[in-house]
């Protein structure tokens, strides 16, 4: 029985793991679908100290070790550009990823890594202006990672006030379809502070998180699941509906029965009272019956 | 005791009135159904015996109908598919209606008396050409009429008995464009005339019986031909040359073709405008239209032309009608002020007037568009004429003896958009007595009802009860009611006419042919787009009328200039109209109103600039306060791009005024063009009310619905799969469903259905979306549901935190925060294909929801949302069952009783609108297509009110009897006690 139960849970886990996996995708650092890296340009060592968390570095190294097969060693790069308010887009960083060609010809990107250029002094000023005017910080990436810019650029924007925390926290969710980029969900890491407080970041460095996301499979119509489940359960034991309590089953009979009994009792009580006037012999019988009814009725009746 | 039991039973009986499905006698109590046919294109009259009373018409809504000539009622009607356009209609053998449709490829015969289809044949052909239908009535072979159909580059001869193709002559090799098929006088021979290229003229003489080619001649005319050809007699044609300035008379007699040219300027003096030959079948005469003039030109012998009459271009001429011994007549209709002038003339004599009538005509019907004439024999044995007139507002009138015998408002068959308006508040309080006449009658009525409930009623009583119900339901009053059941439905139709329908009985309260949506010199092809509620006075509801905004544009392309019109919702008068300088691509009603409660609207033009209406300084200041919170999105379906926009600054450049703003691009989503194509986008209804944000699940767990007004559902399919079902392999086809936040452009959810194909119909409500598509692998239609829940507030379910105030329930929700959402989804099979999906809306959103599905059979099915719950499982636990979770099945059930249209059909169903009533349990449903249907629905039954047939009298009587019984028993017991005490 226990074994079966565990099998059952395992099965259910497998069934629903695809939909649950989405949450963990973003938070798990070791997931091999994404790399997580801060800006680290060599020319600015100051940033480098501040930036990469130990976990991120570890994750990159492990993934590298794991997937060093020479076949899929085609690396591609595409750039991230940013704009302050309505200004023109300028380069702000580079995404690099590996192009994995699957057996049936489809190409996907894996192991996305991101290197962010740091803000120059001018850009810092621009960003401060954005904060002051509560304007949008905009980014764009090409819609095709292989042949930028593809059909058009994918633009995404966020209110500048959403980014600053300790440093500048940003979070990319890149929705991919093969080598095409559909959309970028771009924003700060957590909630965006609503009552606008003009807060300048203490460190002008980016703490970037990137996630690559592909489409989920839709659950199929239940007929297939039913077959499998039927095979699973049909080992001999039919799941019994849980036993209901006696009261839950028979209340509809019990209540009228109770009423009838009560009615009978009152009748029985009244009869002896009338009889008692002429026939004291029935006294013992009457008192026995009178107990459950209580003295109250008897008093009123008299 | 027995009496008491009886009374209790009575009370129970009177209370049980299941309202889930309808009883037979409830039909028509709160629903109405109206049948229309659309704007008439062709009409044929039947002249024999019983058929005399009928006219058969085909319309622009692809309806073939037989109408009663006396009253205009529909005898029978068939609605052909949306792409099965009727090209021609005629009568064969005196008993069959022949229709040619689908670009000349389907020929059908309908039985004239009852409209049953007799036969149908498909005509083959490779090339596209102008379809035409000709029934050779004079030629009878074995009691058979030959039908000649010229379509698809071929000439087909079809037997009218069984639809068999007798012979077929293919002209594709010669690349001949057939212009006319001409029947020679009862000789069994036909002429087929046409052009190859633009200048070569051909005449084929063909034996109509076997298709044998008897003679072929051709001649070249150097000037070239263009446009329509007018047939003047069986051997003379008139055409225009390529410059449209010369009329060419073509005479093909005795094997030779002669061209004769006449300059139009010789006929009418100088004209700069290009001329156009109008299609007509008059003998010896044809109609020519030159800018503001219409000319009737007679062809005399040897191809000479002479102008018979110059008339106003709004004049309409009917086809020629032959009556007694080879005389021909035709009708001419002209406008004179608010009258129309109808004259019927003899075919060869313009000055003869058989009938001359002036008919008073409502100017709201616009111009006459078409006229069909029919003759009858008067009581004095002379010839009388009646005319069927089609007006600009698509209405159909029958005119006889200078009077309008009947009219049909057939523009209601082509509704574009619907909105609702409240009725006026009752000014003087009406007491109950006034409504219920007197107490005696009232009691009598209720006694009758009581009898009905107890099944004691005789048939006469039943009739009386039904009459009382229909009369007493007050549903057609023109004032607001307490429950909000009575409303005005304001509909915009394709004709540019706007109607107010009363929701109680569906009658037209007022109608208006919008002057701004009429064809004029400034605006050539005005089209109506939408109706919006413009002003809803709450504060001054007693003395101000609400108004609606009608949005249209001049022309069909999206960058044509826009037209706005403001119409009073109670009186139907146009308050104001604006011809805009800019185009209208999108209309965004904003959630703000100004001091006189006019709603602010943003109109987006083709250059992505937004224009604020109303153009008042007050609206501007209200708007500019909120300017940073206004986001909008645009869907470029052809391009596969969705973009988000924000308003940036005042317009600069041409057309700039104070109320125009430039916008900036905020985000964009680019779907890869090789794998995805947008086929459906759906958002939530802006007026939807959500009662609770939390959903308590079985294990006392709370899930928070992700309720955002800014969610957009997008469905894309692989480009190959955008064709019809079955045109693609399941492996190559997939459907992707997206949930997109329209403020930030984040994709919140993305899900691929492999092997699925459109068309997709979807409905979005609260935090769920339901969509319908075809599953190629299972060969069935499927419906999927996606529910989206907010995880970021999940920790709020801790009661302790709530008590201590450590919850974040009051934290502001920002779209810019990173959303933490979970989605649940499930798919189910659904048997029907779907024309439209809607969801019931109620006033407070408490009542459970039903999906309203317009099925392929033109009915509306109500399906509980519970069937589309992603949490359905195979063996729900007891607790889940109590919560209302239905055990999982693979298909959605179709319960025949849950068709809200019961036995009726809403032919050509296009849309379903739901409007909440004031009563929470009830919602009003209006579905439209060629027909209209309106009803009232209570998805969870009417839990908050007594049903209409609740017997108040019974309740009253019961109470009185009970009180009396109490007194009687009390007195009795007192007496008894006294007696016992005295004993």
UniProtKB/TrEMBL annotation, chain A:
Keywords: Endoplasmic reticulum, Membrane, Signal, Transmembrane, Transmembrane helix. GO terms for cellular component: endoplasmic reticulum membrane. Belongs to the EMC10 family. It is found in: Endoplasmic reticulum membrane. Residues 52-62, 276-290 have a biased composition (Low complexity). Its main location: endoplasmic reticulum. It is a single-pass type I membrane protein. This is ER membrane protein complex subunit 10. Residues 1-21 form the signal peptide. Residues 33-72, 276-302 are annotated as: Disordered. The keyword Signal applies.
Automatic annotation (TrEMBL), chain B:
SMART domains: PQQ. GO terms for biological process: protein folding in endoplasmic reticulum. The keyword Lipoprotein does not apply. PROSITE patterns: PROKAR_LIPOPROTEIN (PS51257). It comes from the Eukaryota. It is found in: Endoplasmic reticulum membrane. Its main location: endoplasmic reticulum. Component of the ER membrane protein complex (EMC). This is ER membrane protein complex subunit 1.
């Amino acid at each position: 029985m226990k074994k079966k139960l565990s099998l059952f849970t395992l099965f259910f886990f497998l069934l629903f793991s695809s939909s649950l996996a989405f949450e963990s995708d973003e938070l798990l650092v070791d997931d091999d679908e994404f790399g997580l890296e801060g800006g680290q340009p060599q020319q600015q060592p100051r940033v480098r100290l501040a930036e990469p968390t130990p976990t991120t570095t570890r994750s990159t190294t492990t993934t590298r070790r794991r997937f060093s097969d020479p076949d899929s060693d085609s690396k591609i790069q595409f750039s991230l550009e940013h704009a302050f308010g309505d200004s023109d887009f300028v380069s702000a960083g580079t995404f690099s990823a590996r192009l994995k060609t699957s057996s049936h010809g489809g190409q996907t990107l894996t192991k996305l890594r991101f290197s962010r250029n740091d803000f120059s002094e001018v850009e810092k000023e621009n960003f401060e202006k954005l904060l002051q005017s509560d304007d949008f910080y905009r980014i764009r990436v090409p819609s095709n990672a292989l042949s930028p810019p593809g059909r058009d650029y994918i633009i995404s924007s966020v209110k500048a006030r959403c980014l600053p925390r300790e440093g500048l926290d940003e979070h990319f969710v890149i929705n991919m379809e093969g080598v095409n980029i559909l959309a970028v969900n771009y924003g700060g890491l957590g909630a965006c502070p609503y009552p606008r407080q003009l807060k300048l970041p203490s460190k002008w460095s980016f703490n970037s998180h990137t996630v690559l996301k592909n489409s989920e499979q839709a659950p199929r119509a239940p007929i297939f699941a039913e077959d499998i489940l039927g095979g699973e359960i049909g080992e001999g034991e039919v799941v019994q509906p849980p036993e209901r309590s006696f009261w839950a089953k028979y209340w509809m009979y019990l209540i009228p029965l109770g009423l009838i009994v009560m009615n009978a009792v009152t009748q029985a009580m009244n009869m002896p009272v009338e009889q008692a006037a002429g026939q004291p012999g029935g006294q013992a019988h009457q008192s026995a019956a009178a107990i459950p009814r209580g003295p109250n009725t008897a008093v009123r009746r008299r | 005791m027995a009496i008491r039991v009886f009374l209790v039973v009575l009370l129970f009986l009177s209370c049980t009135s299941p309202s889930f499905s309808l009883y037979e006698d409830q039909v028509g109590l709160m629903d109405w159904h109206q049948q229309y046919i659309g704007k008439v294109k062709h009409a044929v009259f039947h002249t024999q015996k019983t058929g005399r009373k009928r006219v058969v018409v085909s319309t622009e809504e692809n309806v073939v109908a037989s109408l009663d000539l006396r009253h205009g009622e529909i005898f029978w009607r068939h609605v052909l598919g949306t792409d099965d356009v009727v090209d021609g209609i005629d009568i064969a053998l005196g008993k069959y209606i022949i229709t040619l449709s689908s670009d000349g490829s389907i020929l059908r015969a309908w039985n004239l008396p009852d409209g049953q289809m007799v036969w149908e044949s498909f005509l083959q052909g490779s090339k596209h050409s102008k379809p035409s239908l000709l029934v050779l009535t004079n030629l009878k072979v074995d009691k058979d009429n030959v039908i000649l159909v010229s379509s698809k580059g071929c000439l087909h001869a079809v037997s009218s008995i069984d639809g068999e193709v007798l012979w077929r002559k293919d002209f594709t090799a010669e690349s001949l464009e057939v212009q006319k098929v001409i029947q020679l006088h009862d000789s069994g021979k036909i002429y087929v005339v046409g052009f190859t290229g633009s200048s070569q003229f051909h005449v084929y003489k063909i034996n109509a019986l076997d298709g044998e080619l008897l003679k072929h001649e051709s001649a070249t005319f150097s000037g070239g031909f263009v446009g329509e050809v007018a047939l003047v007699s069986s051997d003379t044609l008139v055409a225009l040359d390529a410059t449209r300035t010369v009329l060419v008379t073509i005479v093909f007699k005795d094997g030779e073709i002669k061209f004769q040219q006449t300059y139009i300027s010789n006929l009418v003096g100088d004209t700069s405008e290009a001329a156009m030959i109008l299609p007509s079948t008059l003998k010896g005469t044809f109609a020519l239209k030159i800018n503001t003039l219409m000319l009737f030109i007679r062809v005399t012998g040897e191809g000479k032309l002479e102008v018979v009459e110059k008339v106003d271009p709004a004049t309409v001429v009917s086809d020629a009608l032959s009556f007694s011994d080879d005389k021909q007549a035709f009708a001419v209709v002209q406008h004179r002020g608010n009258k129309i002038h109808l004259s019927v003339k003899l075919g060869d004599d313009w000055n003869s007037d058989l009938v001359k009538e002036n008919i008073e005509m409502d100017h709201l019907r616009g111009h006459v568009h078409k006229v069909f004439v029919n003759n009858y024999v008067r009581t004095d044995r002379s010839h009388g004429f009646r005319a069927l007139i089609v007006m600009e507002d698509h209405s159909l009138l029958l005119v006889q003896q200078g009077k309008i015998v009947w009219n049909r408002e057939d523009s209601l068959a082509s509704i574009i958009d619907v909105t609702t308006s409240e009725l006026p508040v009752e000014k003087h309080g009406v007491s109950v007595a006034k409504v219920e006449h007197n107490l005696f009658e009232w009691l009598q009525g209720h006694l009758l009802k009581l009898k009905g409930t107890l099944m004691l009623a005789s048939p006469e009583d039943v009739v009386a009860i039904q009459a009382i119900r229909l009369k007493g339901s007050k549903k057609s009053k023109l004032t607001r009611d307490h429950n909000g059941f009575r409303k005005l439905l304001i509909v915009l139709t394709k004709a540019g006419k706007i109607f107010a329908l009363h929701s109680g009985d569906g009658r037209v309260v007022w109608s208006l042919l919008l002057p701004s949506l009429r064809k004029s010199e400034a605006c050539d092809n005005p089209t109506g787009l939408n109706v919006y509620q413009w002003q809803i006075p709450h504060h001054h509801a007693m003395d101000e009328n609400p108004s609606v905004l009608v949005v249209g544009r001049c022309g069909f392309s999206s960058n044509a200039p826009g037209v706005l019109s403001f119409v009073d919702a109670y009186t139907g008068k146009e308050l104001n109209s604006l011809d805009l300088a800019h185009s209208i691509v999108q209309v965004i009603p904003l959630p703000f109103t100004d001091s006189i409660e006019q709603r602010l609207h943003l109109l987006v033009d083709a250059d992505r600039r937004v224009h604020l209406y109303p153009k008042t300084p007050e609206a501007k200041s209200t708007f500019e306060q909120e300017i940073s919170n206004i986001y909008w999105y645009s869907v470029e379906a052809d391009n596969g791009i969705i973009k988000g926009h924000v308003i940036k600054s005042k317009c600069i450049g041409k057309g700039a005024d104070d109320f125009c703003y430039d916008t900036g691009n905020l985000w964009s989503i680019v779907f890869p063009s090789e794998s995805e194509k947008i086929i459906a986008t759906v958002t939530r209804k802006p007026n939807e009310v959500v009662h609770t944000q939390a959903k308590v699940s079985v294990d006392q767990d709370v899930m928070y619905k992700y309720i955002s007004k800014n969610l957009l559902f997008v469905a894309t399919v692989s480009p190959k799969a955008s064709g019809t079902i079955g045109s693609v392999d399941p492996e190559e086809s997939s459907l992707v469903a997206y949930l997109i936040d329209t403020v930030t452009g984040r994709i919140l959810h993305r899900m691929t259905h492999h092997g699925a194909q459109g068309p997709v119909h979807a409905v979005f409500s609260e935090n769920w979306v339901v969509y319908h598509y075809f599953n190629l692998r299972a060969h069935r239609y499927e419906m999927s549901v996606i529910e989206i829940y907010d995880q970021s507030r999940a920790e709020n379910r801790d009661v302790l935190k709530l008590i201590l105030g450590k919850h974040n329930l009051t934290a502001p929700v920002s779209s810019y925060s990173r959303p933490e959402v979970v989605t649940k989804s499930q798919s189910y099979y659904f048997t029907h294909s779907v024309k439209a999906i809607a969801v019931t809306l109620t006033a407070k959103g408490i009542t459970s929801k039903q999906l309203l599905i317009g099925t392929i059979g033109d009915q509306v099915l109500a399906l509980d949302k519970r069937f589309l719950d992603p949490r359905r499982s195979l063996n729900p636990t007891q607790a889940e069952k109590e919560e209302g979770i239905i055990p999982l099945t693979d298909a959605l059930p179709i319960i025949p009783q849950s068709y809200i249209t019961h036995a009726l059909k809403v032919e050509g169903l296009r849309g379903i609108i739901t409007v909440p009533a004031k009563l929470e349990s009830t919602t009003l449903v209006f579905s439209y297509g060629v027909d209209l249907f309106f009803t009232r629905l209570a998805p969870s039954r009417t839990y908050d009110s007594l049903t209409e047939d609740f017997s108040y009298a019974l309740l009253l009587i019961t109470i009185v009897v009970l009180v009396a019984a109490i007194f009687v028993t009390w007195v009795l017991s007192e007496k008894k006690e006294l007696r016992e005490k005295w004993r």
